[in-house]
Amino acid sequence: MNLSPRQLAAVLCLWSVLFLLPFGRAAELPIVIGALYAVAACVRDPARLRGAQYRLAFLAFAAYWLPELVSAFDSVAPRKSWTEVATDLRYLPFAVFTVDALVLAAARRQLAWWSALLLLFWIVDALAQSAFGVGFGGALESDRVSGIFGDDNLKLGPVLAVLAPITILVALDRYGRAFALAIWALAALAVLLAGARGGWISFAVVTLALLWRVAASPQRFVGGLLLAGVAAAAAIGTSYQLSERFAARVDRTLAAFDGTRGGLETALAYRASIWQTALDMSLAHPWNGVGVRAFRHDYLDHAAVDDQWLALNPGQGAFHAHHWVLEVASETGAFGLACWVALWLVLWRHWRALAREQRHGVAAYSIALLAMLFPLNTHFAFYSSFWSNLYFWLLLVWIAQLPPARERLP
Questions:
Q1: In this structure, what are the phi and psi dihedrals at residue 139, rounded to the nearest 5 degrees?
Q2: Which helix (H) or strand (E) holds 309?
Q3: Is the pTM of this model over 0.90?
Q4: What residues contact residue 350 under an 8 Å CB cut-off, 6+ apart?
Q5: Which 3 state secondary structure label does DSSP give 135?
Q6: Mind listing the pLDDT tens digit for each residue in 333-358?
Q7: Of 94, 95, 85, 112, the residue nearest 56 (C-alpha)
Q8: Positive or negative, the Cα torsion across 192, 397, 52, 69?
Q9: Which residues pair with 138 in a beta bridge?
Q10: Beta bridge partners of 139
Q11: pLDDT tens, 80-99?
């Protein structure tokens, strides 16, 4: 089925959120455009909001937004918290827009195809930057490959790791396993060279989930896991020998096994201190936290005297918890954690109710969200515009795949 110009424009608007991610706050533009379109459409036809997909999208928004609203009433930084509460309202109409835009299977396929091509371009550009020292994001000057994100915005590894399932599964569906395996290998190399240990863990989660999905039996899963392990070891060994930057990142990671607190802190980039402070903050403000985005403003009151971040950022400390569970717990308290957990229990129930072919439709986004929220990792701040934009994009696109759907955007 061919899409109308309006339907294509809606898909393009959604795709633009990914396209503009590397360019600062530019990704806000398509979100605002989609939100304004949805508000105008709902004014004309309020009955359009009936349906299971809309209710689930509203629940996803409420689980994210209500904790920050409750946290703002006694926030240690009320201006910062209330500003976040107000600006995050944009996700509610954007949720309606996303469900409307992807009501047709052709629209969902188009979004997946465009997204896969974009991510493949990011991968090739990152590898070119590693090989030649320059790419579309500029020259390689730091100890990591930055790709399209640029040398002053080292987010390529975690973002590419989380989004890789889209490219790999589109390649699998269109061109078969051999081509998908080649895409996986290129993505793995780009994520490795990007140098973010959080990205490495996320890509490992993605690989395990993809293997589990394509394996027809436990024996084939184990066999695929062994092959992936051999390929990863070869890529790591080769990169270690050829890239001094990558070798330095690996050596820093291995310091975690020297048996000392200092080695662990070095390997974790001093995040252990942040996590301890976030835990203390959570215990001191157990019900609704210190206030959304107020973590940095309360850090000094809970940090240890020898906290490395007090030296790195005098008078302030760390900016956020670097772990989504601790971020939610410290900034929004037990109420926030309960909302997040309740949402994921509801989404799990919906996923369990899907038929096998329907699960296939949401597989790429399911795996991406799993990698994004995998708790044994370090994370960007979920209550920030960059990571929350990507989180809501994945979550709402996932919800929009669910049956039943009603035709919109004629």
A1: -75, 150
A2: helix 308-312
A3: yes
A4: 56, 402
A5: strand
A6: 999 999 999 999 999 999 999 888 88
A7: 95
A8: positive
A9: 135
A10: 134
A11: 999 999 999 999 999 999 99
